[in-house]
Amino acid sequence: MANNYCAVPHIYIEECEALSDAEFGRLMRALLRYSRDGEVMAFEGNERFFARRMMTQEDVFNKHYEQARARRVAKAMYAAHVRWHGDEDEEDAPDA
Questions:
Q1: Cα 33–chain centre separation
Q2: Helix 21-37 and helix 48-85: axis angle, to 10°?
Q3: How many separate helices (H) and strands (E) can be counted in the chain?
Q4: 23, 27, 35, 78: which has the fewest C-beta neighbours closer than 10 Å?
């Protein structure tokens, strides 16, 4: 299950300072679409110089989100098993 947001770190403000408001807006719209659908848009202006870096960073954010989510699911399943079956075993416990 994908997350329902796109991470936009504050550092992007400084990194994209050379872009006009229109270029930055197109870049943010493209980043949101990429995050939601995986769609890579064609760029009209200077935003093309920043797009690949931001999309790559979004992929990293999504990978970390999915790893954290998988850990939480494993812990919840283990906790439910222990609660209902009462046979807690240190070796079967998911990593923290």
A1: 13
A2: 40
A3: 3, 0
A4: 78
Q: Which residues contact 65 (CB under 8 A, 6 or more apart)?
A: 3
Residue 92 corresponds to which tokens in the numbers above? 């079967």
pTM of the model: 0.69
Q: 11-24, pLDDT tens digit by residue?
A: 999 999 999 999 99
DSSP-assigned letters across all residues of 32-77: HHHHHH-PPPP--STTHHHHHHHHHHHHHHHHHHHHHHHHHHHHHH
Q: How far apart are the first and last CA of the chain?
A: 21
For the chain, the structural domain boundaries read 11-88
User: Which is nearest to 62 in space by CA: 38, 95, 28?
Assistant: 38
pLDDT at 93 over 90: no
